[in-house]
Amino acid sequence: MKAAAVAIGVNKTGYLTPLEGAVTGAWQFALWAEAQGMDVTLVTDEAGPVLLNDLLDIFEPIIRAQTYEKLVVYFAGHGFLLTQMTELWLLSKAPDRAGEAVNVQLSRDFARYCGIPHVIFVSDACRSGGPTHRHRSVTGGAMFPVPASYDQDGEVDTFYGTRPGDPALEFADDSEAARNYKGLFTECLLEALRAGQPEVVEVPENGGSHWVVPCRPLKKHLRETVPLRAENISIKLNQDPEVRVESDLPRYFGEVVGGLTRGGTRGPAAPGPSTPAVLLEASVAGAAELLRGEIVHGFEVAGDPSREPAEAKRNLEHEIDSLVRARGRAGFETATGFTVYDQVRSVTLGRGVRADLWQEGEVSHVRVDGSGAGDGVSILLELSDGTGTVLAVKPQFVGTVLVDQGRVVNVNYTPSTTSPLYQEEYEYVAESVDRRRAFAAATARHGVFELEGEEAEAAGNFLRMQKRLDPTLGIYAAYAYHEAGKIRQIRSVLDYMTHDLPPVPFDIPLLARVSGNWPPYAPFCPMLSQGWALLDLHPPSAERLRDLRPHLVPALWTMLTPEGVARARTLLETGELT
Question: Quick one: which of 10, 13, 49, 335 could link to 416 by a disulfide (CB 3.0–4.6 Å)?
Answer without folding.
Answer: 335
